[in-house]
Amino acid sequence: MSVVLQHDGLVLKRTPIGEVGLEVEIDESKFGKRKYNRGHLVVGQWVFGGVERGSNRCFLIPVERIDKDTLLKIIEEWILPGTTIISDCWKAYDCLEKKGYKHFKVNHSVNYKDPESGQHTNTIEGLWRQAKFSLPQFHRKKQFINGYLAKFMFQKMCKAQKLDPLVEFF
């Protein structure tokens, strides 16, 4: 069994995803609420994640900053070299090929699915939807984001492997 975080006694092993011949979609998302329920100002926690196509193995990591150094460190820790990484066109990802990955960019300002290659980031976008939906609707606290994500990842892993969460937890 492998899941992503260690939180409140739940030890979750780190198992990198991807390998030569596999594809991993990566993205960053802010978990929070719009301030005053309007506009684009979102108060909350940045989370960086990746999902392996086919197996749906994934990782979600809360981060304080979404800068190049922070994200590259996570990519190198969680995604095996030789993997094809699919991302948006953010400049921080431009060096991935120099780091031993194949890299394909999807330009979301033009389309969400590349018409020539068929590449997209729909899988990671779906993961964001699932993860955000799993968060408590009320009294959500930024300080508990690790626990919320650990619970989500644990339940997702148990469902994917057809395991009983109670048996696996205890």
UniProtKB/TrEMBL annotation:
One of the Pfam families matching this protein, by short name: DDE_Tnp_IS1595
InterPro entries in the record: IS1016-like_transposase, Tnp_ISXO2-like
Domain of life: Eukaryota
Domain called ISXO2-like transposase: residue spans: 16-157
TM ranges: none
Alphabetized NCBIfam families for the sequence: transpos_IS1595 (NF033547)
PANTHER family in the cross-refs: DDE_TNP_IS1595 DOMAIN-CONTAINING PROTEIN, SI:DKEY-17M8.2
Protein's recorded name: ISXO2-like transposase domain-containing protein
Lineage of source species: Eukaryota, Metazoa, Ecdysozoa, Arthropoda, Hexapoda
